[in-house]
């Protein structure tokens, strides 16, 4: 059979135009630089998007047509092939819309992108040409900074978040036409200055002065706030355990810029208001019926759970023993390491999870064991209830305190001598400043064994008392070290350079007493 080869005539040329624009694939606190490659060639007008893109990305071609038409920009009547490289990494975000649009404009010679290898574009296009905010912007900007990208165009509604990231030139974009005018030089976009100071918002938490009595519990909360320690409040129902826990944010120091950045990014990954800025320390209080995935994190596309959303804030577990045992045991890693590893078949992600755990528990299922009221529980029920909290979890909690019943006649009294949250907060901030100078911005709860061995000011008499208490209370090595860290925090609150015997004595009082019988 005779074969024919169709070749272009000597005077005919096949017109192919190729252009590459950068964007970012976010993955937790890390990510990959995506190269948006666009090729215009002769053929029937169409758009083809390849490169392991899901339906949300593939639908960008319809958004692009409408956005170009609404912006009065000519859309190339060519065969448009868009490749999202690397092609073996899943693309499941609409943040590539803006980069695809710029790659088409560049390939059509309508605009020129200067410093191409150092510029990235992030944003989702609406049908009217406006640029919508995207999820997980901060993670993308951190990846861009790490990969050597210096200039990033972001949605204008994400500008408040973008200001948190330094060392990048940020241009907020409201719509596609404004970006077109900027890239052509007709009307350059105004640069966003990331060094603008951001003030922390005020918290609406209850004031400590509003809480009647409970001086021991208040003192425990002050220590927990000063050293970032975990706390378990134990007591009968209705004594104010939940109110005490919810008042803790009122004595915590304001968030730093770096803490705002981390918290905003984590909330942006899974919150409906993913363009909002987190400026107050989060207080996460999941219900005891929450699934393990909701608390730990994960899903088909892994997202942070409650323990990561509480990063740099408070994780409040009300009625701790009522949670699923698997959810409680999942706290082991974050309580020890300050992070959580979410492993799934597709990928493995690490999310930060350094928080103050505040948990509450009743003495028994009915709540009145060992109180002035009669307990209706059987001994077996009480043992079963208490066994829901395993030894490894209890060992990772620094402070235990009982919340006692308050007399009815005192409930409506106003105590003029009660300390306000503002007064306590000043002591907490002073203690944290001492910790920052001593251990490179780390709180006492995050001290390593190397830090402790290097010396944290433990006096000889105090060490002897701690050793004796460790033997008497049968403390594990972990509990021994945690008690020492609590004593260091108490000394910081006392503005003492050394840990004295009175600091050890108070720290030991917050360890659970061993009970041999019900």
How do the strands and helices of this protein lay out in sequence?
Blueprint: E1 16-27, E2 30-41, E3 46-50, H1 55-58, H2 60-70, E4 79-85, H3 97-107, E5 119-121, E6 124-125, E7 131-132, H4 137-146, E8 151-155, H5 159-162, E9 169-173, H6 176-184, H7 215-227, E10 231-234, H8 241-247, H9 257-270, E11 283-284, H10 292-296, E12 297-298, E13 303-304, H11 306-309, E14 314-317, H12 325-329, H13 332-337, E15 339-343, E16 348-352, E17 356-361, H14 379-386, H15 391-395, E18 399-402, H16 421-439, H17 449-454, H18 460-473, H19 477-493, H20 501-509
Parallel strand pairs: 3-4, 5-8, 8-9, 10-17, 10-18, 11-14, 14-17
Antiparallel strand pairs: 1-2, 2-4, 6-7, 12-13, 15-16
| CATH overall fold name of the largest domain | Rossmann fold
Overall geometry comes to elongated
Give the C-alpha Rg. Answer: 29 Å
Largest sheet, strands/sense/barrel: 5 strands, parallel
Q: How many domains, in number, for the residues?
A: 3
| Overall pLDDT confidence | 87
Tell me the name of the CATH class of the largest domain: Alpha Beta
Class by alpha and beta content: alpha/beta
